[in-house]
Amino acid sequence: MTLSTRQRLTLQEYLDYDDGTDTRYELVDGVLVEMPPESRLNHRIASFLFGEFFQLGISTELLTIGVQIAVSSLEVTARQPDFVVLSTACAEALESASKDVITVDMPPPALVVEVVSPGEPGEPNYDRDYIEKRREYAQRGIQEYWIVDPSREAILVLTLKETSYEEQRFTGQTSIASIAFPNLNLTAEEVLKAGR
User: Fold this and answer.
1) Which of 130, 111, 112, 110 lies closest to 120, judged by CA?
2) Domain boundaries, the chain
3) In the chain, which ranges are E strands?
4) CATH architecture assigned to 37-192
5) What integer pLDDT is reported at residue 32 of this predicted model?
6) The whole model's pTM is what?
């Protein structure tokens, strides 16, 4: 649902906005757009990844669910990934922020994970995660972006090379190869089933 406002909001107005509810919004072309509740599977996968990265020895100060990332786009101003591993510099910059938003002047996170909803090419769910966010996250300099796609039973690991991502696809019992986290020992199936 799109909330109509008298004027388009700037990023700062968005950061200052509080309607007194727990409703989550993304800012799209200056307009607040209510984000639908995440599926139970999305929550399970994000929580599973949080636990796995914690077991790797990554501090909980760097692991986050719910942080937003300001992006440079003609339409969208801020995205909310399912799971993020912050870089140390990014975590330090967030400490003094008034909201849990990684603004464009902050260093990028080390890893962003999106668990995609079902959809086909040309449909909003697919295009948002496979095309739009891919472009936006590359522009932000995010070194690694995972697209976790339960309906296609695949995980794409995108690694930034200069200004665009190189893609590796992982399915089934194939171990996920992460340049940012080489000690990670997970298969695609373990992630897709959230450890079940």
Assistant:
1) 130
2) 37-192
3) 25-28, 31-34, 63-64, 68-70, 78-79, 83-85, 101-102, 111-115, 144-149, 154-161, 164-170
4) Alpha-Beta Complex (3.90)
5) 76
6) 0.82
